[in-house]
Amino acid sequence: MQLGMVGLGRMGANIVRRLLRHGHTCVAYDRNPEPGRQLAAEGAEMVSDLPALVATLKPPRVVWLMLPAGQITEAAIHALAGLLAPGDVIIDGGNTFWKDDIRRARELSEKSLHYVDVGTSGGVWGLERGYCMMIGGEKAVVDRLDPIFAALAPGRGEIPPTPGRAGRDPRAEQGYIHAGPSGAGHFVKMVHNGIEYGLMQAYAEGFEILKHADSAELPQEQRFDLDLADVAEVWRRGSVVSSWLLDLTAMALANDPKLDSFAGYVEDSGEGRWTINAAVEEAVPAIVLSAALYARFRSRQEASFADKMLSAMRKGFGGHQEPKKS
Amino acid sequence: MQLGMVGLGRMGANIVRRLLRHGHTCVAYDRNPEPGRQLAAEGAEMVSDLPALVATLKPPRVVWLMLPAGQITEAAIHALAGLLAPGDVIIDGGNTFWKDDIRRARELSEKSLHYVDVGTSGGVWGLERGYCMMIGGEKAVVDRLDPIFAALAPGRGEIPPTPGRAGRDPRAEQGYIHAGPSGAGHFVKMVHNGIEYGLMQAYAEGFEILKHADSAELPQEQRFDLDLADVAEVWRRGSVVSSWLLDLTAMALANDPKLDSFAGYVEDSGEGRWTINAAVEEAVPAIVLSAALYARFRSRQEASFADKMLSAMRKGFGGHQEPKKS
Amino acid sequence: MQLGMVGLGRMGANIVRRLLRHGHTCVAYDRNPEPGRQLAAEGAEMVSDLPALVATLKPPRVVWLMLPAGQITEAAIHALAGLLAPGDVIIDGGNTFWKDDIRRARELSEKSLHYVDVGTSGGVWGLERGYCMMIGGEKAVVDRLDPIFAALAPGRGEIPPTPGRAGRDPRAEQGYIHAGPSGAGHFVKMVHNGIEYGLMQAYAEGFEILKHADSAELPQEQRFDLDLADVAEVWRRGSVVSSWLLDLTAMALANDPKLDSFAGYVEDSGEGRWTINAAVEEAVPAIVLSAALYARFRSRQEASFADKMLSAMRKGFGGHQEPKKS
Amino acid sequence: MQLGMVGLGRMGANIVRRLLRHGHTCVAYDRNPEPGRQLAAEGAEMVSDLPALVATLKPPRVVWLMLPAGQITEAAIHALAGLLAPGDVIIDGGNTFWKDDIRRARELSEKSLHYVDVGTSGGVWGLERGYCMMIGGEKAVVDRLDPIFAALAPGRGEIPPTPGRAGRDPRAEQGYIHAGPSGAGHFVKMVHNGIEYGLMQAYAEGFEILKHADSAELPQEQRFDLDLADVAEVWRRGSVVSSWLLDLTAMALANDPKLDSFAGYVEDSGEGRWTINAAVEEAVPAIVLSAALYARFRSRQEASFADKMLSAMRKGFGGHQEPKKS
C-alpha cells in the first residue's frame, strides 16, 4: 500500500522505515528537510509541502500524521482537509486527546473525509520490536488499512499464545486492535499510559525502599546494603513482577547502579493527566494512577507551597521551627 | 493535690504553671537547672535529682514525666521504679508508643506501682487554652487524679455544648477523657495526630491549588492572582472548613503571605507513623493519613531515588532525556 | 437594597429570609409556588415568572440565581439575558463550574449586563450563622452590591480577630471576599469544597482506626473498646484537630454512636471533581484531595471491577481462590 | 545434594519434585501423610516425624522449611534446633518476616547452627518455570548450598541477557541472588510482593477505567464499549506495559471477559503490610504501594465506618440524606 507520512521525528521516520522494509510505498514530508535525507536513501519519496504530498499520493489517499499533539496536529489536519478529496483518510498516530478525535471525525465526515486515530506504543524500540497499535475509527476504513497496521505491528513473535482466545479477533495477537469508533484508539492508548505511570511508580517506590534499606533511620543490625542491579536482574526470571519495564530497569541499573546520571526531575505527558480526568468523569477510584502522576508533579518542585503551609501550621500550634533545607 | 514533675521543657513547665495557678502543689526536677529558676519564683519546689523528688513527695506519690519519648522516658521510669513505693503513680504525659504503655503498666504492676498514660494536646497554647488530655490506665487511679486533670483541662469555655450528650461522661466536655486501660490514652492521642496530619495536608494542597491558580500552565484568561491571606480569613466564618488549624493558617498568611520564611522541609513525629502502622494492623484503608505522612517524607528529599528510577525507565523505553533540576 | 431571587430551595429561601431580616427588599420567583407562600408572609414579594420578576425590579436590577448548577442555571441566565437591560446584574450563587462563569461574563458583557459569581458556603446553617461568600466579578459591581453581601455574611461574631491583618481588606473578617474577576468566586469555593472532602476523609479514617481498635486482627491485650462520641467531644477543646466538622461529628456520634442510621454510601458534587481537574491542570500534587474523592466513588461500588481483576491475577499466579463476599 | 524438606504444600512438594528431576536426593516430611504418597513414587524418601528426618539426613544436614510463616514455622525451627548438630543448616523458604530471620539466625548461631532465609517467588508455576529466589545468610553457607539453588532457579532461559552485566554476579541471570546477611532474602522478597501489589493495582485501575468507558455518567457520544480481553492481549506485544501479570490478565479475560467468577474480595498477605512498615521506618514515601494495599482492605469491607462518618458529616452541615445502598 501507499502511505503519506507527515512528521519525521523518531517515531514518524521509523514507521516509514518499517513500512518500507515490509514492501509498502511511502511519500513523506517534514518541514525540516534533514530527517528525510536518510529516508530518501532508504526508499521513501520526499516531498516539500502538504500540497505536494497530496498531489503525489494516489487516491484514495492515506495520510498518517506523526506530529506533536495539540495545535500543530490540529493545524495540519485543517490544512489537509482543504487539500484532500472525498474518500481520503487521515490517520493521527500522535498522542491526541480522545475527545479531539471525536470532534475531528465529525468535522471531517462533513467533507466525506475519514479519520482514524491510532494510539501507538513502542517508542525507540518500535522499529525493531514493532508498534503496538490501538485503533479507533470506522470499521470499513480500518479494515482497508489493514496491510499498513499488519506491517507495523510486532506480530506474534515468540510470545506464547493466550489459551482460550479461539474465535477472538486475531489482530490482538499480532499487536494491534480496532478498539472502537473514533477516539477509542487514543482512549485505550491513554489508559495504557496511565497504567504505565502506575507500574513505573510501583517499581520506583519498591526500589527506593530497597535503596534505603541501609538508612541511618534504622537500627544498625537491621540495615542491608543491597545490590539493586542484581535484584532487578533476578526478578526478570520466574518472579511475579517480571515485565519489560523491569528489563529496562535492569539495564539502567547495570550501567549506572546509583542512577547518578539522573537528577530526579520527571516529565509527564498529557495521557497521564487525561487518564485521571477520565477516571474522575467515570467515578472510578484511580488512586494509584493519580498518585503516580502526582509523584512526577512533585519531582519537579523544589520547595512546595503545600510543604511551607505545613511548616507554618506546625509553628503555629507547636512552636516548631523547621530546619532549613540544606 | 501534690504532683511531681520530671522534665521542664515548654510542655512540662507550663503544666506545672497551670497546676500552680489552680492551687495545686508541684515538686519539679529537670537535669538542666535553668528552666526551674523561673518556676521556683512562681511557687514550684525544685529538687536536684529523682531521689530528692521521691523523698520530697508525700505518699501516695504522683510523678508526671514530660520527657522525650523513647529511651529517655524509659530510663526515667526504670529509675523511678526503683525509688517509688507501692501505691505510687507514674504518669507519662509524653508522646509514647502505646504498646510501650501496655508493657510498662504490666511491669510496674508487679511492683504495685500504677502507670497512667496521658496523651496531651495543646502545644504552646496549653498554658492559656488548657490541655486536651486522653488518659489510659486503671479507673480507680485515674479517678484519684481527677483534680489534676480537671485543672489542666480547658474546661467548657465558650464552646457550645453538643446536643444529646445528657448522661454521657461529663469529663469529655471539660476536655479530658479516660479512654480505657493502659495505652488507650496514647492510642487516642496517636490517632489525633494522624488526623492532624491529614487535616493539615488537605489545607496545604488546597492552598497550593489556590496559589498556583496563576500558573503559566493555564491559559491566560483562566488565571487568578488570589489573596491567600484573605481566603484563609474568610473561611474562618460560616464556612464548612473552619477550624483551629485554619485560624493558625490565617495568622501565618497574614504575616507572611508567601510563606517565604519557610523552606518547605517538614518534620514528622512518631505518632503519624504509628497511626499508619495501626491502620495496617487493623486492615483499615487509611490512604489520606498515609499520603499526608508521605508528603512530609517527600518534603525532606532533594532528589528521590524513585524519581531517578522513573527517568531511567523513560529513557529506556522512549529515549526521553529528562532536564536537570535547576 | 432590592434583590430579585430565582430559585427558592433551602439556600435561596433562607438567603431571602436573611436579607429581609436585615431590611432589604426581595422579589422572588420559583417555578414551584409552594416555597414562596411562607416567604410572602415574611415580607417577600412573589412573582410568577421571569418577565414579571424583571418588570417588578427597579433598574439597575440585581437578580440572584440559586438553582442547580448546569443546564437549569444556564437556561435561566439565557432567559434573563433577553429580559434585562444594560447595567443590570446577574448573580449566580450556585455551585457553578468556574470556567462557565468566565464564559458567561464575556457573553453577558456584550449586552452590557454584569455577571457576578458567588461561591456560597453555609448550608442549612446559613440562615442562623450567615453565609461565607467568595465573590468573583468586576470591582465596581461587587462594591455596589456590598449591602447585600454584608447582610448575608456572618460578620465578625465571637471569633477572635487574626493578628496582623491591619490594612487588609476588612470584608474577609466579615465573612466575604471579592476574590477576583469572573470565575474567581466559584474557583475559591471549589477549592473550599475540595479541602472539605480532604478534612472529612481525614476524620473518617482516624475514627475508623479508633473504631477498629477492638479488631479481632489484633492481639487480645492490644485491643481497645473506645467511646467514639467522647473522643470526638474531648477533641473539641484544646486539641489541634478542633473544627466545625468535628463539632458536627460529635453531634452525630452523641446521637448515633455506631452511625447505624447510615449505609456508607457517599455522594460527591462537582466541586470535588473540579478541584482534582484544577490540580492536574496546574500540576499540583493533590493526593489527599484526590484520595478523599476516590473514597466516595468507592463507597458507592458494591464489588469493583478493579478488585475482581486483582483476584483474577492472584488466581493466575498463585492459584489463590478468593472467598466470596458474604 | 541431599535436602530435607518439611512441609509438602504445593510449594514444598514442587520444590522437592524439581530437585529430584535435577538429580538431587530428598527426604521429606509433612504431618499430613497424603501429599507424600505421590512424592515417594517420584523418588522422595518420606519420613514420619522430625527426629526421623534428622536421623535420615547425612551431616552436615540441610533442612528446608516450607510452612506457613509465623507460629508454625517458629515451632518447627525450635524443634529442629533441639535435634540438629553443629554445622547443620535450616532454610526457611516461607514468607517469614525479615526481622524474625535476623533474630533466629542469632539464636541458632549460639548452637552453631546455620540459618538461611529464602524468599521464593514462582507460585503454582514454579515447577515448570523455576523459582526466583532471594537468599539471605552467611556467604560460605549460601555458597555450599549452590547446587540446590541452581537446580531450583529458572536459569537464563530465552530471556535476553541484560547488556552491561559483565563482571556482575552471574547467579542473578540464573534467577537467584545472595542478597545479603540473614533477613536480606526475605526483605527483598517482601519488597517484591509490595511492588507486585502496586503493579496489580495499576492494571486493575486502568482496566476499570476501560470497563466504565461506557458509563452512564458520560455523554452518549463519548462512551466506548471496549473488548477488555483484546486490549489485554494487544498490550502483550510491543507495548510499554507488557509483563507476566498482563499475560495472566489476558488469560483471565479471555476466559471470563466480565470476571463474573470473582466477587471482588481480595486477600492480602503479610509482605504487603510489612513493605509499608518498612517504608515508614525508612521514611520513604510509598504512596502507590500503600494505596494498593488499602484497596485490598477496602475490597473486604461491606460498608465502611469511615464512609458512614462522611455521610454523618454531610447530613450535619448540608442536611444531605444519603441514599441507602441497594
Explain what the structure shows.
The structure is a homotetramer of 326-residue chains. Chain A contains 15 helices and eight strands. Chain A is α/β, with parallel strands linked by helices and 326 residues long. Chain A has two domains: 2-161 and 169-180, NAD(P)-binding Rossmann-like Domain (Rossmann fold), CATH 3.40.50.720; 189-302, N-(1-d-carboxylethyl)-l-norvaline Dehydrogenase, domain 2, CATH 1.10.1040. In chain A, strands 3-2-1-4-5-6-7-8 form an eight-stranded mixed beta sheet, with helices on both faces. The mean pLDDT of chain A is 95. At the A-D interface, β7, α9, β8, α10 and α11 of A face β7, α9, β8, α10 and α11 of D.
Topology summary:
Four copies of one chain form a homotetramer.
Chain A: E1 2-6, H1 10-21, E2 25-29, H2 34-41, E3 45-46, H3 50-56, E4 62-65, H4 71-81, E5 89-92, H5 98-109, E6 114-121, H6 126-129, E7 132-136, H7 139-144, H8 146-152, H9 171-174, E8 176-180, H10 184-211, H11 228-234, H12 244-255, H13 270-282, H14 287-299, H15 305-318
Parallel strand pairs in A: 1-2, 1-4, 2-3, 4-5, 5-6, 7-8
Antiparallel strand pairs in A: 6-7
